[in-house]
Amino acid sequence: MGQISINKTVFDSVVNHAKTAKSALKGIKAIDLSLKETNLKSIQQQIDVIKDFQNVLTLYNELLDLDLNKLQNMGNSMVQQDELLGGPLKN
Fold it and tell me: By the 8 A CB rule, do 6 and 82 touch?
């Protein structure tokens, strides 16, 4: 009979690695883009694009955090279910 299981150590390691990578993204500081003494349209457009990118990066960080937490909870749930279902088989 085949075995279906989760290697909790490897799973936790991968999730923690992803959380570390996410933390590195979160560490990127916002750039002060207040160039009030220029009225060059191309410069202002570039500043707007950078601001939009910073907003998207912030949203991505929030969504990634939610996804990683869901993934961690799912792994924990799988381990609990495995122990619950495997308990009677061990006896």
Answer: yes
Range of the domain at 85: 36-91
pLDDT at residue 44, as a whole number: 81
- Say whether 31 sits in a helix, a strand or coil: coil
Nearest in space to 51 (alpha carbons), one of 26, 34, 63: 34
Establish if 11 belongs to a structural domain: no
Give a yes or no: residue 55 inside a domain. yes
Whether residue 27 lies inside any domain: the answer is no
Q: Which of 2, 6, 16, 1 is nearest to 83 (CA)?
A: 6
Number of domains in the chain: 1
pTM: 0.69
The rounded average pLDDT for each run of 10 residues, N- to C-terminus, in the chain (91 residues) is 75 90 78 70 85 89 92 90 77 60
